[in-house]
């Protein structure tokens, strides 16, 4: 892509560079809208940007996320992405559907049922609306947080309603794929229940754990990695999260009540182990078993999370090897691995500072494990169990 | 350090290489004992290792954590580090104090008051005992998880009791400093209250959030980074954590009850926003304010955490690059990196399913960043911001 100078030229380019997607209008240039524009620009598609805030709009434009329209109005976009804050998403979708009667309109709000309900109440043209939610984000908000690769390897949920035209769903699916994401179709209710567990619950609990640090005085100096990880998302924007939680109140309430029941069991078990009174050995054993049960359930739940990007847990095996203290050792290794035809899916290296040794862990498809171990054997490297 | 062959020589070395610390005996070669041995070895001090498990002992020795004693007995160590599981720590400390009547004895158990109470009951020689707790760990256990830099930049809590000889406290403080940690002195009760908030609470809540994934069905496919971070420590060993939570029941119960009160307020607010019944606009506003309050308290608590390693934030920088879809790409890369003289401290690769591309993140010391970026540039690889 060369830098463009005239709007006429851009209008032409906009239509012709990608006849799969057509011309694209992005409404809302925060983190997600800007990232979509940046990702499209990288793929050779220039979107037209719009935002109620001139500041955010110009910033996204300057960052390379797309072109400015001449005023608010734009000639017949084929695909409109509404990436506004969630509390105005439905109203903006209604307005865009009415203003551009041929366009496919999608959104990126993280709760889908409430948007759909409001569109129904407003008698919007649901045939052209495809609810969407890319499963990607950052604690950082605004255009400056935008990244063209934000969606790569992520799921992008599409929630067609009954009247939705399947060709419109496919249109938005092409957008998701163009940005490196994998479209997944489900109902709005299925989506909302899922995100209550995998996104909204972790957010609430991270905030509640972080809030306990306010009473901790100088104890926070003892903080290690665990509390940092658990509370990372507690840095998120409260205003945005109030909107999300309020819009998804039913599923979130259900999962919070389930967690509270588990918490009550842990509190009872810990309470039984307190120093205050005598406790029978049977009661002590029961309390320890209850605690072990809660922790073991956590092990099992954690193990259900799919591989970092994928859908196939257990398909991969991890081989761990001690990297020798010699210059270029990693280069030798990966050249040998490639020569053996082994495809490394994930890897991590922890170096042992002070020397060049390190512990290298490589994930490979299970059938490739033996070949990889043979490579290490040939190199004379020690595999760890 | 050259590999040593004779125990006589080692005995001599052991005493003479570091007259600050004297000869050191490490009892228990799991994650922490092995890491202490590795860190000391790097600093030129060879410890003598002991473990009830011959397998763990030999593994720690093979990894370079220290020397094997000739049998269980060792001639007059000056400093003994008890790094056993917490439920036997007090008993092992009692035995070591009795067996070696001149040695300073410390431990690394993550709860301090219960150990001290048991030592008092056993009438142990508290003048020579210094309770310790290095604020470092990993979800991985065992010698293979050991790292010489595990304690660098971390706090190492020391909890002298009333009778403890100040010279013994200084002895253990020298050990902590030698391993790169910062000694912090406090009472056992102060320590136990602090870790209830910054360590034990996050562990319990991570487990409870992870446990909710067991009922989530295929929803886990939508998991993003937030739930991964919140639940990372849920992979920890339940057996170890039952011991820790039981040993610290009083402070843990207090902080869990405080969190439950906050959770009840959130549950009430979300409940008020549910779709079931009509709600007045005043009640709706009150519910939203309650949610915003919980989330804002989380922001404030999160902001109280000190920088990542406490002392030296920003020493490392991460360079992220898109690995091209070509055979042997990693081999080419690491050969070029080695040739440029760049030392990679840590790296991680996330592959993008369906093709051989991936996102590679490399941590390097800040001054090496430019050299690394130049390598990528030369290779024609795209660095991500």
Descriptive keywords:
homodimer, 385 residues, alpha/beta, 8-stranded mixed sheet, 4-stranded antiparallel sheet, 12 strands, 15% strand, disordered N terminus
Describe this protein's structure.
The structure is a homodimer of 385-residue chains. With 385 residues, chain A is of the alpha/beta class. Chain A is built from 13 helices and twelve strands. In chain A, the strands form two sheets. An eight-stranded mixed β-sheet of chain A has the order 3-2-1-4-5-6-7-8, sandwiched between helices. Chain A has a four-stranded antiparallel β-sheet with strand order 10-11-9-12. In chain A, α7 packs across α10 (249-272) and α10 packs antiparallel against α11. Chain A is globular. The two termini of chain A are 50 Å apart. Mean pLDDT of chain A is 85; it is low at 1-18, 308-314 and 352-356. At the A-B interface, α7, α8, α9, α10 and α11 of A face α7, α8, α9, α10 and α11 of B.
